[in-house]
Amino acid sequence: MTTPKYKRILLKLSGEALMGQEKFGLHMPTLNAIAVAVKEASQLDIDIAIVIGGGNIFRGLKGSAAGMDRTNADYMGMLATIINGMALQDALEKHGVATRLMTSMEMKSIAEVYIRRRAERHLNKGRVIIFGGGTGNPYFTTDTTAALRAAEIGADIVMKGTKVDGVYDKDPAIHDDAVKYHSLSYLDVLNQNLRVMDSTAISLCQENQLPILVFNMSDPANIVRAVRGEELGTVVH
Fold first, then answer.
1. Does 139 fall in a domain?
2. Could you tell me the CATH number of the domain that includes residue 95?
3. What is the pLDDT of residue 47?
4. How far apart are CA 17 and CA 55, in angstroms?
């Protein structure tokens, strides 16, 4: 078995990563493939925590732009992340992975309230943690949640799964001459306004010296490759 490069990771998944080829909601084969990849990664004897977005169900900024109150829209987005967290927990447990869903808001019937020390105990016992509900506050993204939780649990890296295989100087879906970066500094990302994570998340990672790996989640097996330290995606450090 290959020795993993990291001992504890924070995996950031967008809600869209769960859609597969669907235009909305959950694509069960994709959800299952992600669960299989996370299980394989956990078998490398590493600690795994996951922050999941909710854009496949509801996106707060989109609701706000359509005229909704921003605070209400953001709370609806937080609830969407919890729905996704429940779905991912179910998929993982069907593959025999011990999992805990922890939320930033109290939802006794379905999840534990996030407490850092309790999260540490779960990780030390080999359980995969899914963090739902964002930070619990409006106006903050799940990218910021990922950076915050990663710092709190002492993760070695934030791994962000996206639709593309790294960070480019411009959108590769539109521009054929887009150039991929293999390595960037935090200041490069901020100064060039590259769409890696929002500026709050980047600043949090910079302050806590947390590297960020941006990689393609179209193939969930890339999670295992990333954990093993194979060369893929773009590293921000």
1. yes
2. 3.40.1160.10
3. 97
4. 9
